[in-house]
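Can't attach files on this board, so I'm pasting raw text. These are the components:
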Amino acid sequence: MSNPIKLKGEKFLWEMVIGLEVHAQVKCKSKLFSGAACDFGAEPNSLVSFVDAAMPGMLPVINKEAVNQAIKTGHALNAKINEISVFDRKNYFYPDLPQGYQISQFKSPIVGEGWIDISLEDGSSKRVEIERLHLEQDAGKSTHDQDPNLSFIDLNRSGIPLMEIVSKPDMRDWKEAGAYLRKLRSIVRYIDTCDGNMDEGSLRCDANVSVRTEGDVLGTRCELKNLNSVKFMMKAIEFEANRQIEVLEGGEKVEQETRLYDPNKNETRSMRSKEEAHDYRYFPDPDLLPLHVDLQRINRLKKELPELPDKKKERFEKEYNLSSYDAGVLTADIQHANFFEKVVVGRNVKFTANWIITNFFGMLNDLGKSIDESPVDSEQLGELLDLIQDGTISGRTAKDVFEEMFTKGGNARQIVESKGLKQISNTDELEKMVKDVIDENNKQVEQYRSGNEKLLGWFVGQVMKKTGGTANPKIVNEVILRLLKN
Amino acid sequence: MSLDRATVIRIANLAKIHIDDSEIDIFTRELSQILNWVEQLNEVDVKNVKPMTGVSGMSLREREDEVLDGGYADKIVKNSKEKKKNSFSVPKVIE
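---
Top answer:
Structure tokens for the assembled complex are below.
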């Protein structure tokens, strides 16, 4: 059972109620209703057709692949796919929305109710229900920092297909909300329907947050916007819940409103301009007939789904005999899982898993690199692991070699040879060195023999110093113990 | 159904249409008349009739996912007054 965080106010103990709306940019080549490209970072307005710019007389024609991707995502969320869905116009005025309305799905979305299971820190899992998933157009992008009096509008993003995935208000604290968003991201990356890149805005999230005393009816909620990382989303929820508690305990009411999160100040503030805009006057788009998808197509797309995160984790636990924790870390991202499965072939599972989780993922994390930016590929890492396993280098040396491979490039074997890092495991050679150390340090030898056994480590250290860290520590230990006894 | 003055002002505001005070009463009367006319449809019993979206029985045509359009930023911003490097410009809008 999950055990969500409760917040202590001046008077009462409060619980949070959180629902998330996630906008995921659909992975496909062209826009939802036009043949212009969906790319990030191109010259302003270079990826815009007359349809996206809402020139008079232009008509939308839907992208088949975007529909398929939405259906696949629906399947991965264990959701009902609707054979008939309808596109509506959501009307509002904003400079980056040239049509004056967004084509979205209101009453009849393409995907209905579903669920996903999220894993919590204490190892338990919790089911979060999904309300719906619908297809809609993205808006253009405004920049405000180029001119003191003007904002600039680039419509390249205008018309890019989005899936809006709406959860039920099932989450009870920011940790659950974080786990949900991470799981959703993991799923869309597994099935390749969205690249999940929050920095570039291909995955965006709004949070609906309210508080109530335990078991009470639902409180008034606020919608938080501008949550562009999991970390910021969690912080925004924490701030907002505490703000609402302060308002309520002060005897006032929470206003239902949209609030913008400011990551620099770690606070949320009211977006007054949105208040009047909330009457969207939805109506079916007369330019678009209802969308029909037949059962055959729905079932075919279900068969195309790859192994999903939960199933892969289960298989990793069984097939590789990994702990639930390790399997969870390795399967959280599809590319990480694939990397592990390439390296582990013909190698010790536990050793490989440990090395990848601790050193490889650790290094990626430290340098803020994703796995496809890694300068060390699965084969190169495999070679390094083999050198440790067959005793050519020590685990300690391996870390240095790995760092060199990562920062300067090159293969493990080359680096070991060119730098003379090969481990000295030759007992005769090591015995000679140990003898030297003993001869040079009479004082310490006496102390050791008169009972100060802690000095053993010091002797090992001296030998290591002489060999530049390449002596096999296990053998050095044995030799020193043996020679000091005499 | 008849509208009141406040609703008419709100509708004008949402539609970004300016109306003079003297016109409010006129629009209130005219819009109410239109709504009353449309309301006659409520007299028809449609309990067992499926909603109809067209007479042809066609469903939405889908296109293949191919990039066949775009690449003419100059044409897109051609009629924009103050453009800068092929971006549209508008009076500053910031939250």
